[in-house]
What we know:
Number of helices: 19
CATH class: Mainly Alpha
Strand content: 5-15%
Shape: globular
Radius of gyration: 22 Å
Strand order of the largest sheet: 1-2-3-9-6-4
Order of helices and strands: EHHEEHEHHHHHEHHHHHHHHHEEEEHHEE
Amino acid sequence: MTDTVHDPAPAHPADEPRCPYGYDQLPDPIPLYGPAYKSDPYPLYRRMREAGPVHRVEFPSGIHAWLVTGYQAAHETLNDPRFGKNHALGNENWHKLASIMPEPQHSQLQVHLLHQDPPKHTTMRRLVLDAFAPRRVESLRPRFQELADALVDELPETGGADLVAGFAAHFPFRVLAEVIGLPAELAVRFDRDWGKVVQPVGPHDPGRPAYEARLRGLQTYIADVVAHKRAGNPSDGHDRHDPDTAGADLLGRLVAAHDAGELSREELDSMVFQLLVAGQEPVTNQITTMLITLLRHPDQLARLRDSLSEGPAHDPGLLARAVEELLRHDAAFELTTWRFLAEDGDLFGTTVPAGDSVIVSLCAANRDETRFPDADRLDLDRTPNAHLAFGHGIHYCPGAALARAELQTAVATLLTRLPGLRPSEAADEDLDSLAWIPAVLARGVNRLPVGYDRRA
């Protein structure tokens, strides 16, 4: 594939269907699945925003939900106190069809922060904030760089590599293990295949048995992590009152909180689950979406790479601006998790029944022209850039500072240490043929073959 700029999709000629998915009018419900949708959902999101802020959609499991698409509507929904995240609010139809974890794992692993409402949510969130505090994250940047460089050192010296298998699949987890206090002997046992539990399949899907096997394996691993932390010194010698070290053994602190009666066993296991899976898989996916975007814009890739050098193009502030714009342009956390109304209510002129699921499209909000001029264009100098890639409101991602540091480290390391970074030149390995993961909420790829001149 040649190094050409990937321009935003052109407006559809008058004699062609306005929607690129084979229909002139949006159906009811709108299907949110299939290769065309997963590879590029943005034309559909544009059409949805033009038609209104709320649409009924269908997921692969057959469940119907209400999708919020515009920036202002998304912002208001994320801050709307009428909505709850607890799955107990879901109605019978949602519980019957939603691609959620089967029992007993659902009850044991799904009572983490993303599925809690105040005051429980407030109490649980407070337990993790020290570990992800910006001051602590900044102090760990040199260690993050060491981990990134070690992975690049293992890549082939010339030619190319798969940057998922060789880098993106490992870097976030190695960082996370350092940040939360996961011992090396347990970290090496973690099977990345367990991360696919955040890509649930419906009860009647042929892949359901494999999905349930992953759940059981992960649940056993979580039990081992808890037992290991309980057997040793929970604080690992760190002062939990020192802001520089208080988060250094987050796992030990969570076990201590359970033993002190602050968390139930299910809440403890769920929070460990959330840290191990939701704490690293989205960063893996975000690295891939950022790299794909830069590879599709080689002029912007070259500018960012040159800004990281000591030459005349050196621009120390561009990396941070670029990461924010790449987050806005194509966020790995495409859709939020479920929200529910306790009673029937109005949502921007649409009546939403109690217990129906409401989901916000963060990606659709981040491409809203009313908030971001020329929203489909990649603009590394865009400022201000109040994107919603990390959500908003009380469920704003507590690990946002960590994710930003990881993404800045990953992008800078790969661009500077792999000169000539470009899409793979193999005939069957171009960017347009990449298979995007079929996860309902996430965007990313499992393979990203690239070429480069040498490993610096």
